[in-house]
Design goal:
The chain is mainly alpha-helical and about 100 residues long. The chain has one domain: 434 Repressor (Amino-terminal Domain) (Orthogonal Bundle). About 70% of the residues lie in helices and about 0% in strands. It has 6 helices and no strands. Helix 2 packs across helix 3 and helix 5 runs parallel beside helix 6. The longest helix has 20 residues.
Amino acid sequence: MTSTGHLLRMARTSRGLTQGQAAGLYGITQATLSSLERDKRVFNSKTMGKVADALGVSSEAIIFATAGIPVELNEKEAIVYKTIQSSVSITIILGGGNR
């Protein structure tokens, strides 16, 4: 299982965005995004909805992907899910943990 903050960071960096750029797309402040990526702040439903909309996925896809729960996904959600699962596998193989 990977954290929601880790997922958010992966989504941002895979698109080559800075925190400031991504925060603008998500409709949140850079400070909020930084806290979310570091798991220092918990997503509320409003923020989760903004992020999901900006990524083109459902809130449920983000939640299920971070929990490793297989669900029926649209094309964008499937890409996010596969990216997360690959990251988790690599982390386990390398003996690392979520940061």
